[in-house]
Amino acid sequence: MAEAQNIPVGSTTAGSIAVAAESTVATRMSAPPSFDVADFPVPHGREEEWRFTPLERLRGLHDGTAAATGDGVKVDVQAPEGVTVETVGRDDARLGRAGTPVDRIAAQAYSAFEKAGVVTVPKETVLTEPIRIAVHGEGGVRYGHQVVELGAFAEAVVVIDHTGDAVLAANVDYILGDGAKLTVVSVQDWDDKAVHVAQHNALVGRDASFKSVVVTFGGDLVRLHPRVSYAGTGGEAELYGLYFTDAGQHQEHRLLVDHNTPHCKSNVAYKGALQGEDAHAVWIGDVLIEAKAEGTDTYEMNRNLVLTDGARVDSVPNLEIETGEIVGAGHASATGRFDDEQLFYLMARGIPEHEARRLVVRGFFAELVQQIGVPDIEERLIAKIEEELEASVA
Amino acid sequence: MATLEIRDLHVTVEADNATKEILKGVDLTVKQGETHAIMGPNGSGKSTLAYSLAGHPKYTITSGSVTLDGEDVLEMSVDERARAGLFLAMQYPVEVPGVSVSNFLRTSATAIRGEAPKLRTWVKEVKEAMARLNMDPAFAERNVNEGFSGGEKKRHEILQLELLKPKVAILDETDSGLDVDALRVVSEGVNRVRETGEVGTLLITHYTRILRYIKPDHVHVFAAGRIAESGGPELADKLEAEGYEAYTKGGASA
User: Fold this and answer.
1) CA–CA dist B46, A262 (Å, integer)
2) Cβ contacts of B81 on chain A, cutoff 8 Å
3) What is the pLDDT of residues A36-68, one digit of tens each?
4) Per-residue pLDDT reduced to its tens digit, A155-180
5) Which residues of A touch B104 (CB under 8 A)?
6) Which of A167, B33, B163, B214 is the most buried (most CB within 10 A)?
7) Domain-located, residue A25
8) Is the ipTM, as predicted for this complex, more than 0.85?
């Protein structure tokens, strides 16, 4: 078996591939993936996959004490004509095909949900309007499961919008048939107290394209696992993320791209801004290139902009390469403070300080916002960024 | 007529846990329409003067005064100084990722002019100014200073000078790193602004080369944190022939 190569934090692949076996994608999990919550011990907080997360703020999602409330979290699906929207029972064969829960909360969600949503876009159906899934919390606790499946050569945009106050644990499966194109925008625009833990599994078919845009603004604690694997050659995955972490918020994004199939591509770009006391952002970017995945082309990047004192970022890119027969693999991670020289330059051109700050932060996010490709979401995002910045100036 | 008056200016910086005095009593008056060249060896404090006038937070004014038309410049924030009519063309312009040149220029012009320029005339104004500086129109869509060559950065600084029409322009080593062609284009831009007669120019340079294109009315030799000698254009010729040696020796004892 090829020895996994692990590249340490903050380095680039050019010239520095260190072999370090102590923290690989597989070994950093305290239990193998499973659909059964009983297969995972209750975390105590020192495990590799839990060490950044404040367990006491999970409202019992991690230790079995959070009981579903039945209502208090509403899910509404709006889909254009030609799309099938169903609510199905636990035994439906379409559930759980895109990936297996990798931690106790995802397994808890899978073990506890009562009904699952299944949205199907038939083969060769090209949608011109997005499918919109609104998840709105009214103080309830919910375990959810959602499947979005695209048949061969289907094309769709799905917008999943999370608002209100909830304690939510969920698994979301995206299944892309051959040549399908799916864009998913998941917006976490929760109220201040919400807790949201979810695993997103994408299974990308042969020559299919998957684009995920994860936007996290709200919540007390948000912990998401966007994960991708490939069902055939020629698949492409783009994973973009933006987060704006305010005082007291914990926002954690833990990605895995599993290059388990030859000749697939992935590109990961996450950017976050932080402001305020005890704002905490965590970004874990795991890319695994398995021995059989020859011809892989992958790049991952995380950038953070720290606007004030008291905020903390943990950014851990991790690239494991089991074959040298690849097109390219790289990663980059950088966390910087707001650049006073940029501020000086803009102010020296007459631009007032708060406007200069706004320009810089908008600029920081601009390239990612442009990737979304859903105009109303782009506008809302920009407005939201402005709103966050206004709050910081005030 | 706009006048910048610098009186007995003392400036310090913090470096290696120590406070170091860089400017040791600078006196200078720049009037609208005049061009002053400030020349001096490396480390003499020329750039410190430029950045102190613009209000860079790194520098601390310990004594002295700077006024623009009688208004206390040192009391103003960086952006207020710019809106009052001071402009600093920087030696090392800063990259601002994600902010396009066109957005930056318009935001800046809006701030300086007090109202947003009318879109139609503005687009034309920028286009023409860029053409005069031999800048490709595609330049406007690039991010501010990101990936610009040395020459592009300096052209971009002079483009701002032309558009923002300050009362006093401080050009900090605008000539450094430019080849002869770029130097000519940039100098022509500066001259167009000078010819309006509405700007006082403080041209800070290490070399006499730029003075072949931009003719100063006054030349000052800067050494050891103050003006060591002032004269007319002939002083530049003397520096060209003799270098700064006479001043650096004198400066050491000052």
Assistant:
1) 60
2) 348
3) 999 999 999 999 999 999 999 999 999 999 999
4) 999 999 999 999 999 999 999 999 99
5) 346, 349, 359
6) A167
7) no
8) yes
